[in-house]
Amino acid sequence: MSAPLLELRGLHFGFADRAVLRGADFALHPGERVALTGRNGAGKTSLLHLLVGLRRPSAGQVLAFGEPRRVEADFVPVRARVGLLFQDSDDQLFCPTVLEDVAFGPLNLGRSREQARADAEATLAALGLTGFGERVTHRLSAGEKRLVALATVLAMRPQVLLLDEPTNGLDEAIEAHLLAHLEGLDLAMVIVSHDRRLLVRLATRAVALHEGKLAPATLHSHEHTHRHAHLHLHGPGVDGEAAHTGAAPLHADHHAGE
Ligand SMILES: Nc1ncnc2c1ncn2[C@@H]1O[C@H](COP(=O)(O)OP(=O)(O)OP(=O)(O)O)[C@@H](O)[C@H]1O
């Protein structure tokens, strides 16, 4: 297998009163779309932030594109190539209008104003947001903000996407559109989501964060006798509810023509 794009080796991290990661190992290879699962508070968001240097470990190593990364100067070029969709869209959006927000990243990467505007408009169009450019960002609905936040990341044309709850607040139709779009991108991804249907569709493999460590998990779906599609998530540290009950009955589109 080719060299990892991103890697964590024996990572330890915590907040003042709480250990979050206790020797986590992880590698993301080109072409992989990895589902990162774990209970609320397990440390999934912290792990994504550590990968791009928004948090620093107390021990262990972060590597990106083959190089160890320790200080802010090491992470600046990483963040130009690794796009992070924050869990909260309001952490991502800070300009008065949608177009300014989406063009901000490309401008920051040194692209011309014309190029940044063209990139922003093309990205908005690809996400079904044609004509949103002049909208006032803080007046958007939660779902619209989610898509615009994703547009700000994609407009930078990253090599890796880190998605923290990408479908939060989206209705089914928009979620389906977003999923199809993400599936069509030739990008390595780490996806944090409590939406099992999304993970089953999008992820090429899964890892579960439990007690500060990562272990392989499996995601798969199968048909039950009553012909509703159920999605199962197995592995250490996955949401207890899903592991014990066989997951929520999601009435997926392919439920047997009822
Ligand atoms: N700024 C902070 N200061 C102190 N503790 C924090 C801070 N941010 C997160 N934590 C704690 O660290 C732990 C890991 O949080 P994190 O957000 O990484 O978990 P998560 O797996 O993403 O959770 P969720 O699924 O609920 O989003 C949690 O117990 C959380 O309460």
Helix-strand makeup class? alpha/beta
Distinct ligand kinds? adenosine-5'-triphosphate
Taking the sheet with the most strands, its summary is: 7 strands, mixed
What's the architecture in CATH terms? 3-Layer(aba) Sandwich
| CATH class category label | Alpha Beta
**In the residues, how many domains can be counted?**
1
**Based on CA inertia axes, which overall geometry fits?**
globular
Mean pLDDT: 87
Spell out the CATH superfamily: P-loop containing nucleotide triphosphate hydrolases
Count of helical regions: 8
Number of strands: 11
Question: Which runs of at least 5 residues are low in confidence (pLDDT < 50)?
Answer: 222-232, 235-258
CATH topology: Rossmann fold
C-alpha termini separation: 43 Å
Question: What is the H-and-E element order?
Answer: EEEHEEHEHHHEHEHEEEH
- Rg on CA atoms, Å: 19 Å
Strands of the widest sheet, in order across it, are 6-7-8-3-9-10-11
Instruction: Work out the helicity level.
Output: 25-40%
Percent strand? 25-35%
Notable characteristics:
globular; disordered C terminus; four-stranded antiparallel β-sheet; 258 residues; seven-stranded mixed β-sheet; alpha/beta; Rossmann fold; binds adenosine-5'-triphosphate
Description:
- With 258 residues, this protein is of the alpha/beta class.
- It has a single domain (6-245), classed as 3-Layer(aba) Sandwich (Rossmann fold), CATH 3.40.50.
- It has eight helices and eleven strands.
- The chain has helices at residues 44-51, 72-81, 98-108, 113-126, 142-154, 172-183, 196-202, 240-245; strands spanning 6-15, 18-28, 33-37, 59-64, 67-69, 82-85, 160-164, 188-192, 205-210, 213-223, 229-234.
- Strands 6-7-8-3-9-10-11 form a seven-stranded mixed beta sheet, with helices on both faces.
- Strand 4 (59-64) and strand 5 form a beta hairpin.
- Helix 3 packs parallel to helix 5.
- It is globular.
- The N and C termini lie far apart (43 Å).
- The relative contact order is 0.16.
- The site of adenosine-5'-triphosphate (ATP) has 11 residues, from strand 2 and helix 1.
